[in-house]
Amino acid sequence: MASSECTVVSETRCFQGSVIKYEHRSETLNCTMRFNAYLPDTRCTLPVLYFLSGLTCTEDNFMQKAGALRYLSDRRIILICPDTSPRGVDVEGQDAADDLGTGAGFYVDATEPQWKDHYRMYSYVTEELPALVGRHLPVDKTRVSIMGHSMGGHGALVCALRNPGKYRSVSGFAAICNPSECPWGQKAFTAYMGDHRKAWADYDATALVKRYTGPALPILLDQGDQDPFLKKGQLLPERFIRAVEDNPEKQNLHLDNHMRPGFDHSYYFIQTFIEEHIQFHARHLLA
Amino acid sequence: MASSECTVVSETRCFQGSVIKYEHRSETLNCTMRFNAYLPDTRCTLPVLYFLSGLTCTEDNFMQKAGALRYLSDRRIILICPDTSPRGVDVEGQDAADDLGTGAGFYVDATEPQWKDHYRMYSYVTEELPALVGRHLPVDKTRVSIMGHSMGGHGALVCALRNPGKYRSVSGFAAICNPSECPWGQKAFTAYMGDHRKAWADYDATALVKRYTGPALPILLDQGDQDPFLKKGQLLPERFIRAVEDNPEKQNLHLDNHMRPGFDHSYYFIQTFIEEHIQFHARHLLA
Lengths: 287, 287
Hints:
2 copies of one chain form a homodimer.
Chain A: E1 6-13, E2 17-26, E3 31-40, E4 46-52, H1 61-65, H2 69-75, E5 78-82, H3 121-136, E6 139-149, H4 151-162, E7 170-173, H5 183-193, H6 197-201, H7 205-210, E8 217-224, H8 228-231, H9 237-246, E9 253-260, H10 267-285
Keywords (chains A, B): Cytoplasm, Hydrolase, Serine esterase
Enzyme class (chains A, B): hydrolase
GO biological process, one term (chains A, B): formaldehyde catabolic process
């Protein structure tokens, strides 16, 4: 544990705890990264919840806009919000569009030459970041859950389904549930992994959930029925729900799925249902 | 009531209500303005709470970051968030700094030639906007309160103290309490009103509260003791508190004042105490 591996950029009081912004050199992404932690006041280890953000977001959006910190303070759960892509790197084409490159890492490990030296957000959020967090924050490493929004909902589902037992629960707001079959996912996966559908399946929640054989996994999904990206076929939650039914061991997949009338894709939607998500994770983290 | 005077830009579901963004032509400011409303689902009129934002903010900051909407939904109070200055106007020097001009209207009616055709945020928030809101939203015009943050805390106090009986309660987060005596206020007041200290006093809460003679006015102030602008002498809450004591009719000024250890000037501070502010206003609005 080198004390220089991770520096505190700022620390801000919120409820009975602090929002701490960290900066560190990432070996996985080969660049300098920032993440936010919410740390309730504590003298002992606490459970930890990861939140993965959506397209164009940074480590700040969820911290500032979700209204989650009150509930994490009450239930004494640490929150970790990583960024959504490598930053400050030099990759051709990474700033040409909102849905590829900067702010759009899609939580995959790229294999294409253009991207593979930096765009490895899957390994970053499942390995390097948790190890770093374990060295710098008082986390109970046996009590970890994960959630996300849109692209980050996809990321959370993939992390949980590929690592049985690593996360106690997973939840998504307006998650991209079947990226291999939607325009956003096809564009990103083609760029990052080439036209290798077999490789894509390892990062597709609908493909993964069909063949999940791990221990019991509680899953909570929330979706607004007025979400424009639902209507455009970017999210496809119905495919994921059907795939759960197709799993021969579906009794281990405890899916709680909500379609919310009138709600869209924004943080106003997240604000409204965040308490239910924190309660869901708290139930499994504190059990 | 011309139906074209005010158009709905967007409507977004949040809790048991909607965030509605309006656009309208302002006669007072001589430009097109936007404001946000949070409207709980209702078939009858509801009380209304105004929130005035701080330097550099727009009508969005409080809506997105304060975590207030849950409490307004529960208590069925309409929230109105105006912008912080005229927009899209052509005034020399208005974009030279964060603390003057665009995003920094300071809730005064400018009298200096350079500013007076547009920068009249005091009349806008106390007259034109409430009249417009009254025509387009189901507000109970006898139940109105006001609050704000930083420059907006100054604005809220000035609106309440200059209009006895118009607002049932007033509150501020990290309010600029004595603008005539702080660098931010002196710069803005000199620009907008010239070097006329007598005119300044009409927009200075500390000067106004000394000579307030209206009906009982409940005032709630919250301040973080780690606020960098407190340390720099921009906020001066102690002057306001002393001035309340100096008022011969101080029994009508019901001041509840909190210094919060460890908190700064940010929306993380506001998030933490917003429930107490909504409860305070609800007590007076729903009485």
